[in-house]
Q: What sequence folds into this?
């Protein structure tokens, strides 16, 4: 369904040019969940934003390769086609729900805006908004939809973000660090919710995270990004159980695990790794 | 003898002004942030052009501020440099050969690139001489309002509590009076003059500086380096002078440059209102004011207002552009 | 909210007191009432005339407290003035002896006729230009416009007026340049030029400010969310950026609303509009200290009223505050 071929993305021009993504290839099949794992600055979020050309251009510049969605090259699309793609076919959930929702619009109007854009055939918008909120596990959605974002807790805000993304029944959900800004207990609830929704809707998902700890039960495949390149890719169980690349090993070594009190958590020596890559 | 002494007081005060500016810049110039900003500024063509223009104005104003005693009374360096330009009998158009008078035009003693004014003085020379008033207003006011605003702002944010309450009360009270009314009130009581104008503008001007510095210091005080300095047992004064002040100085400079342009404009408006430059002082405001009647003459005199307003515009524009460039240089993300 | 506003009002009391004290010190302590009388009456005034003038106005009373024993302790210059202003009695003109309240009532309408249209036209134009510049941001036109804004800001208001009056009134011979009369259509036609000049002289600074504000808004996370939903750039700007920016705009703009009544000193004088600005101009020339002092008092009340209005509008516009 989605295929990145040798994609390169630069920021800035001339002397200040930075290569954020250096020729990566990745594919996501229908209904599949792929986790893109790496530290901040590895280029994973840039890759996620690039799927619908959300990065501001300039400074971003697509230096090479292609992004194929259902066989069509996203990089060749015009503004109208891109708008239909965004939200309609590929929807996003971002890291920081408290700033990602517009503070001056109600939950209802923010979800309704997406519906108007991509599903104008929906007659009873309110009922659909309630349905979406219900799907992401919001209690008494009819009352909640008239709330403004600041009246909701962080976990609830992120549920609203997911509801907004689901409202237009996208084929691919890009979740960019969806649980990083949340408390640990809320993290688990949100991940559980996303797993359920995935099973109900059968949509594909690109889960972008720095945390190997959260992908276990949800991702089918994992791609590990380091300094703009994919250094390892494979089935989740394989990569977690038998990491090949030194960086993957180091990242997995960073996860604290219960019952291993005496183990030291690993820190990552970037220069040594950089020499390896 | 008294007049002779005053000349040297004035000359000395120009030195003092430059020394203060140089000293303030010297204190911060070595820090990483200022070096980086200077590096970025050098690559900013608009900013460097604006700076060059400001330097030209500074040079002209300085030449007009230094006086040397002459047998016939003291003369400024600029007067001495332009002594060869003859005085005419009245208005004459740029590069004209006779005076403007329709009835009996008199031949001119020389050519004047931008014409002459009502008294037959060269317009360009008069405009250049008026640079002095603008720079003195800006300079004197800056010497008053910058230390006052910075000191009160930094103290309010550092000590909080009643100090903050008192400072906030003071600036709320001054801010409650519309600026123009405050300026007019002070100048009506104190009288016209460069010094009184600087006092009036200083009294209204420190509020903005104090607010800015208070806000920024409040943020800086939260930073770990202040807590670290405290933990090491440094005195309040040292923390203020060594840590907080250098970290807000770039804002002071930006605000001072942009504020300077406002002061130059204010001089023109106050002179127009009749509470600004005293009669007889060469000032752009007075020249613009005089042009009202000149434009209704037949044929109308356009060169005086064009030249004086043009010079004022160039200085203010250069200051605004340079201030913007400074802001970009110090804060490249929010340029 | 109401409790907050009431607290705010109480905070204003010491400020108004401070302003009164400030003007009192300036007009009666820095300059003695005697010197004031001489400046108002002119250098040729006899000592008797000065004495009469001071006595008629009560300016011959002790400054702060009356300790002469012949009158109650509060019969002093400062306390009498405070009492008068507390009853909103603005006093009489130093020159004409007319009650100032009347003068101010007369001048309010002409001032408002000038400033209200100029304010709203200027605001609308600035917002539209700023939004457009944000839409085409970082392009050549945007850069040129930013430069033009700085240039517009660098011209003193008198130059706009002199140039505008000269071009339109003398060269094109179109508008009556002087002579304000209150009679419907001809007033509107007469006001066109001063209103336009007022708009132009404020345009550069406003467009620049609003543009910076909207650009700041563009960088917010929720703008990215809106774009990720598939909202077009124009709608992102008109719906999301505009509504959020509007809230910031309120804090900047509403506070200046009450000042519209004060008019514009330079413009009114140039065009002979008999508004409050022009009255202030005459008072400066006269000199008439009572008018200036009353204007300062009125100005500070308007300023504080503006602050209060800002709070109310802010609470009304921003759900984050409204719902607290």
A:
């Amino acid at each position: 369904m989605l295929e990145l071929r040798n994609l390169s993305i630069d920021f800035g021009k001339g002397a200040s040019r930075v290569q954020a993504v250096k020729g990566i290839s990745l594919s996501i099949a229908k209904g599949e969940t792929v986790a893109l794992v790496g530290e901040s600055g590895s280029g994973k979020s840039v890759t996620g934003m690039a799927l619908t050309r959300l990065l501001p251009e300039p400074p971003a510049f697509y230096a090479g390769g292609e992004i194929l969605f259902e066989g069509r090259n996203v990089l060749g699309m015009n503004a109208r086609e891109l708008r239909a793609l965004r939200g309609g076919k590929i929807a996003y959930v971002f890291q920081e729900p408290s700033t990602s929702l517009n503070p001056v619009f109600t939950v209802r109007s923010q979800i309704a805006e997406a519906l108007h854009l991509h599903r104008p055939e929906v007659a009873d918008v309110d009922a659909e908004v309630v349905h979406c909120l219900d799907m992401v596990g919001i209690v008494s959605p009819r009352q909640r939809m008239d709330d403004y974002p600041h009246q909701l807790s962080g976990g609830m805000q992120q549920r609203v973000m997911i509801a907004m993304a689901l409202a237009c029944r996208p084929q691919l959900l890009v979740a960019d660090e969806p649980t990083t800004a949340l408390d640990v207990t809320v993290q688990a609830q949100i991940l559980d919710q996303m797993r359920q929704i995935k099973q109900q809707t059968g949509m594909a998902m690109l889960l972008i995270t720095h945390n190997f700890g959260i992908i276990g039960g949800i991702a089918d495949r994992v791609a590990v990004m380091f300094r703009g390149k994919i250094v390892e890719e494979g089935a989740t169980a394989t990569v977690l159980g038998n990491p090949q690349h030194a960086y993957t090993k180091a990242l997995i070594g960073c996860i604290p695990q219960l019952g291993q009190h005496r183990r030291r958590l690993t820190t990552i020596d970037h220069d040594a790794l950089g020499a390896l890559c | 003898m008294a007049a002779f002494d005053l000349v040297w007081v004035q000359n000395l005060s120009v030195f003092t002004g430059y020394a203060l500016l140089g000293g303030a810049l010297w204190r911060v110039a070595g820090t990483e942030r200022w070096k980086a900003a200077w590096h970025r500024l050098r690559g900013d063509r608009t900013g460097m052009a604006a700076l060059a223009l400001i330097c030209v104005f500074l040079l002209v104003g300085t030449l007009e501020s230094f006086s040397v005693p002459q047998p016939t009374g003291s003369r400024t360096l600029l007067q001495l440099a332009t002594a060869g330009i003859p005085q005419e009998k009245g208005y004459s158009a740029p590069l004209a050969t006779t005076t403007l008078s329709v009835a009996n035009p008199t031949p001119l003693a020389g050519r004047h690139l931008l014409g002459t004014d009502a008294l037959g003085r060269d317009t360009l020379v008069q405009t250049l001489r008026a640079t002095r008033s603008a720079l003195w207003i800006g300079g004197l006011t800056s010497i008053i309002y910058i230390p006052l605003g910075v000191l009160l702002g930094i103290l309010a944010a550092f000590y909080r509590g009643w100090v903050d309450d008192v400072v906030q009360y003071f600036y709320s009270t001054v801010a409650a009076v519309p600026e123009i009314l405050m300026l007019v009130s002070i100048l009506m009581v104190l009288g016209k003059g460069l010094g009184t104008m600087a006092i009036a503008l200083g009294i209204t001007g420190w509020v903005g500086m104090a607010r800015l510095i208070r806000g920024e210091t409040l943020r800086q005080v939260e930073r770990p380096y202040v807590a670290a300095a405290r933990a090491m047992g440094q005195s309040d004064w040292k923390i203020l002078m060594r840590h907080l002040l250098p970290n807000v100085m770039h804002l002071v400079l930006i605000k001072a440059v942009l504020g300077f342009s406002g002061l130059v404009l204010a001089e023109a408006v106050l002179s127009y209102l009749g509470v600004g430059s005293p009669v007889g002082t060469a000032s752009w405001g007075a020249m613009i004011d005089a042009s009202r009647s000149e434009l209704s003459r037949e044929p109308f005199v356009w060169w005086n207002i064009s030249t004086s307003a043009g010079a004022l515009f160039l200085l203010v524009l250069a200051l605004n552009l340079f201030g913007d460039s400074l802001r970009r240089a110090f804060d490249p993300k929010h340029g | 909210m109401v409790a907050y506003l009431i607290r705010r009002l109480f905070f204003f009391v010491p400020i108004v007191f401070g302003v009164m004290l400030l003007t009192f010190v300036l007009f009666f302590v820095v300059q003695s009432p005697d010197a004031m009388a001489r400046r108002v009456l002119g250098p040729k005034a006899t000592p008797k005339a000065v004495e009469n003038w001071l006595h008629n106005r009560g300016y011959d009373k002790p400054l702060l407290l009356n300790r002469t024993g012949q009158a109650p302790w509060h019969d002093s210059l400062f306390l009498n003035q405070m009492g008068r202003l507390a009853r909103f009695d603005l006093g009489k003109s130093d020159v004409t002896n007319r009650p100032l309240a009347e003068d101010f009532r007369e001048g309010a309408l002409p001032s408002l006729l000038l400033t209200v249209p100029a304010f709203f036209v200027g605001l609308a134009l600035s917002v539209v230009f700023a939004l457009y510049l944000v839409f085409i941001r970082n392009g050549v036109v945007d850069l040129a416009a930013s430069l033009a804004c700085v240039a517009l800001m660098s011209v003193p208001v008198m130059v706009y007026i002199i140039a505008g009056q000269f071009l339109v009134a003398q060269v094109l011979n179109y508008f009556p340049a002087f002579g304000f009369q209150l009679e419907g259509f001809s007033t509107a036609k007469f006001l066109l030029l001063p209103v336009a000049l007022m708009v132009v002289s404020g345009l550069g600074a406003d467009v620049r400010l609003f543009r910076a504000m909207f650009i700041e808004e563009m960088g917010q996370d929720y703008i990215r969310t809106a774009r990720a939903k598939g909202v077009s750039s124009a709608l992102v700007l008109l719906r999301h950026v505009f509504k959020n920016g509007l809230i910031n705009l309120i804090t900047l703009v509403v506070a200046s609303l009450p000042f519209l009544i004060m008019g514009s000193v330079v413009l009114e004088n140039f065009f002979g509009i008999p508004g409050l600005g022009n009255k202030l101009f005459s008072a400066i020339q006269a000199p008439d200290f009572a008018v200036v002092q009353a204007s300062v008092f009125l100005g500070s009340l308007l300023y504080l009223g503006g602050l209060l209005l800002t709070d109310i509008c802010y609470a009304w516009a921003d759900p984050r505050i409204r719902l607290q």
Remarks:
- Chain C touches chain B at residues 14-16, 18-19, 22-23, 26-27, 30-31, 150-151, 153-159, 162, 166, 170, 216, 259, 262, 265-266, 280-281, 284-285, 287, 289, 292-293, 295-296, 299-300, 302-304 (CB under 8 Å).
